[in-house]
Write a structure and sequence with these properties.
Blueprint: H1 11-23, E1 35-41, H2 48-57, E2 62-63, E3 69-70, E4 78-84, E5 93-98, E6 105-108, E7 113-117, E8 131-136, E9 146-150, E10 159-166, H3 167-202, H4 205-225, H5 241-263, H6 266-269, H7 274-292, H8 296-326, H9 330-353, H10 363-401, H11 411-422, E11 430-437, H12 440-447, H13 449-466, E12 472-477, E13 480-486, H14 490-505, E14 522-528, H15 535-551, E15 557-560
Parallel strand pairs: 14-15
Antiparallel strand pairs: 1-2, 1-4, 3-10, 4-9, 5-8, 5-10, 6-7, 6-9, 11-13, 11-14, 12-13
Amino acid sequence: MGFSDKGKYGIIPRLVKAMLCCCLFLAATASADTLSGSSRDVQPGITPGDVLHEAESRPVASFDPSRMQVFPSTPSGTWVVLRSLPPWTSGNRVLSIRTPGLGSVTLYNEQGPIASTSLEDFGPALHGHGRLIFEIPASVPASRPLLLRFDPTTMPPGAVTMTVEPWRDYLREDGGWVVFATACFAVMMTMALMALCFALILRDMTFGWYVAYLLCYALIQGLKSGYVFHPLEIQSLAGLADVLGATATTLSVSFAALFMLRFAKIDDYVPLLRIPVLALAIGMPLLTVLRATGIGVLVDTSQLLQQPLLLLGALLLLVTGAVAAVRGSRHAWFFLVGWTPLLVLTALCGAQQQGMLAGAPWLPDAAIGVGAFEAVVLSIGLSDRALTIRHDRDRARQLADSDPLTGVLNRRAWTEAALQVLEQGMSRPIALLFLDLDHFKSLNDCYGHATGDRALVAVAAALRDELRPTDLLGRFGGEEFIALLQGVDKENAVQVATRLCRRVHRLDVHTGQAQADDLLTVSIGVAMRSAADTVQSLTERADSAMYAAKLSGRNQVVCSGPAGPALVRRTETKLR
């Protein structure tokens, strides 16, 4: 029965069935419960027929193939006899071995070997995805025992489960595993690519260490599950899984330590643990160097130290992250949420390699899923970090561009912004207003500099309210302000300047002058941009017009001609 049956399934049942297919590999199958198994060491002079006869004639140690089983690492390997219990089924069947490790497995009959395969085998034999498979033809009765030989390997033996099931059931479970594993590895690679883009854009090595860690972890899981061999068919890695796995394992801890140092800001929150974490980051790659020397003593030392250091290093990172989180490191919480499940699952998988937790065959596949979960969580944390960095940079730029007293643009920032406007060409008219407060020194002398500062803040707020958001308003220095207006002709520029004079006059700020009207006023010079103008020349012409307004009695607007002070054309508007 397939998804192509017309009228049989709606869209929702199809989605439900697809989800169930992805999850089927996490549970033990019903057919696995119909198997029993026994094992013994491979010894010289013992033929496959002798092994089968021994299993028939006298009781031997048995095990449940549906539960994870670790066969002892012996020099010659291990014989495994599998029996299907009644009721028996007929037809072509598939013998599948999950999480077999990197050693080869051979199927025998009484006469000798029938077929041999391994995760690193790219020959014509059948290949499973993440498992080893053998086809059992219908001509072989289901009641006949099956004989396997697990060859020795330098890698730690895998904790395996074995099933014999019809092809239909196997293909369904295999398809679910491929979908699940592909989705998890795709998530990890996508998160790594996103972090790499952030690293290049922000030039922040925090993202670089995360990319390195994630690639190492994906490689570890790809090798353990056999995904890099089948279905990816990366033949260049055949024979290198032992070295690559050990190297990726040590480097992953090192990159995780370097990542956490920066990501959780250990220097700020847990300075006492910075040195141990840094020592872990430096020390773990040394195990790889010792292993690469090929010297027996050094290789044995690295292998002896690897597991204890991995456990201690993982606990050190967990404790450091927890302390940093408690002390206020926001991003340390992201690290803990992603790292803790992975650490727990890694410990459980390690326990399975020692023969424990045999009833949880889903743990190796869960390690792939948790890796994808960690990648998503840490990527969210990194995105939050990127937003924080951007916010901090924007805030720093705003502080650098703003006048600390009035909040308008300072002279440098205004000049840069005005230069960008002038570089847009002559498509729109541009007017520059140069403003200078009248008798401001008297205000400071009579009422103090604090009152003068408050007056400057009030004037800046009044000018900002009168101008458009697109107009550039800045503090040129002291009691001088400057504004660049886009898209206004000379007449409108004078009208805007006149309105600004009136607004400042209405602030009711007294200067302390010995006269009837001692309110604060402003003199404004206006200059219209010409084709030959630069920011400096335009400012100088407006400044000259402002001084002309001062000399003419203050509190008025004077507009300069385009040729400079010699050809000043004044438009005076007395406002008192």
